[in-house]
Amino acid sequence: MLIHQSPAIRRIAENKMRRMDEDAQRYRRTQWRKALERKGWRNAHRFPAPQGDWIEYHALWKGWLYSGRCRLSDFDWHDWDKPGTHVYLIKRLFEVEEAVWRRTRKEVAGQVVRRFTS
Fold it and tell me: What are the tens digits of pLDDT across the range 60-82?
């Protein structure tokens, strides 16, 4: 038996499903970050990355996973305003959902960007 739903009820149900999906995505991102923290990574929102040391990082931004290695002191202060740069992702943290970092001995800078799937 098919029951006719009013547009208002359908909208409410669609909004509820969308919120549930957003909550599930947020939960997956948080679990991803916590797993890395258990392996010795630092939460960039709680522990600021050092300026002069070489670090490697992972940052989730707009559904993409940015992984990189750099020394933040090597970058110009103008990079703070350039979306996607190392400084923007790990220090400014503007609109970055999750970010983690750790010190590294490898002194080779670089960045890889890929779609985040958990």
Answer: 999 899 999 999 989 888 888 88
pLDDT at 1: 47
In this prediction, residues 90-98 reach a mean pLDDT of: 88
> Which of 5-14, 52-61, 77-86 tops mean pLDDT?
52-61
Contact (CB, 8 A) for 46 and 52: no
> In terms of Cα–Cα distance, which of 72, 44, 67, 45 is closest to 56?
67
**Chain Cα centroid distance, residue 60:** 2
Chain centre distance of CA 63: 8
Adjacent-strand bridge partners of 69: 56, 110
Of 17, 115, 96, 16, whose CA–CA distance to 57 is shortest? 96
Calculate the dihedral angle through the C-alpha atoms of 44, 115, 23, 57, rounding to the nearest 10 degrees: -10
